[in-house]
Amino acid sequence: MSDPVVRIEGVGKVYGGDRLRVEVLSGIDLEVREGEFVALMGPSGSGKTTLLNLIAAIDRPTAGRVLVAGQDTSALGEGDLAPWRHRHIGYIFQLYNLIPVLTAYENVELPLTLSRLKTADRRAKVETALGVVDLLDRQDHFPRELSGGQLQRVAIARAIVTDPTVLLADEPTGDLDAESAERVLRLIERLNTEFEKTIILVTHDPRAAEHAHRVLHLEKGKLWSDPEG
């Protein structure tokens, strides 16, 4: 069996100080292995997005350790975080987070500006990513010219263009109609089955969670497994 790509050991997260202290996560232990597709469910405010942000090293734990690809992210200095995320993390947001003045092509290309790739190599990667999400014919369109489903597929192309170690998806279908949501979920599932991407998907929708290998639940800062999963 492969080693864990993500290992979370006794992680806690507290916001605020002594007078106003909010414990969001407490004693979280989790292992996600290479090629695994994990769905993370829980009510609003349960800490799902906080946990994703800790894995992405966007935030840091108050207690415990988060290791991704063997790296303890708390040991990374501020100057090391951006290149580390560029190599290891692809993040898919609910509301796309595309830049409105850039075309679909330019939005997907954006993460590659941190690399030293030649223009031709960069173009090849962008066109490959847009091809995977079936949007090569929309590469010159601006976000305002695209539907919600197309916007999310552009966001997915941006997340995979660097071939990251882990894909994190935070409610990626939460703003979509049923048909567009199902297409996005099938695409995410394909990234797992065909391209063997390791995926952690946050969702409140049991139908979305059905696409995953394993379903976990967060409630009141505690993590537990689906008894049927």
Blueprint (SSEs and pairs):
Blueprint: E1 4-16, E2 21-33, E3 37-41, H1 48-55, E4 63-68, E5 71-72, H2 78-88, E6 89-92, H3 104-109, H4 119-132, H5 148-160, E7 166-170, H6 178-193, E8 198-202, H7 206-209, E9 214-219, E10 222-225
Summary, kept brief:
By secondary structure, the chain is an alpha/beta fold. Helix content is 31%, strand content 28%. The chain contains 7 helices and 10 strands.
Name its key features.
four-stranded antiparallel sheet, 28% strand, alpha/beta, 229 residues, 7 helices
Description:
There is one protein chain. By secondary structure, the chain is an alpha/beta fold. 31% of the residues lie in helices and 28% in strands. The chain is built from seven helices and ten strands. The chain is globular and about 50 Å long. The chain starts with a strand and ends with a strand. The mean pLDDT is 93.
Widest sheet: strand ordering: 6-7-8-3-9-10
Strand content: 25-35%
SSE arrangement, N to C = EEEHEEHEHHHEHEHEE
Helical/strand content category = alpha/beta
The parts where pLDDT drops under 50 for at least 5 residues are none
Judging from the principal axes of the Cα atoms, what is the shape?
Answer: globular
Quickly count the helices: 7
Give a count of the beta strands, DSSP E runs of length 2 or more.
10
Measured as a percent range, the helix fraction is 25-40%
The Cα radius of gyration reads 18 Å
Describe the main β-sheet briefly. 6 strands, mixed
Q: Give the CA-CA distance, first to last residue.
A: 18 Å
Overall pLDDT level: 93
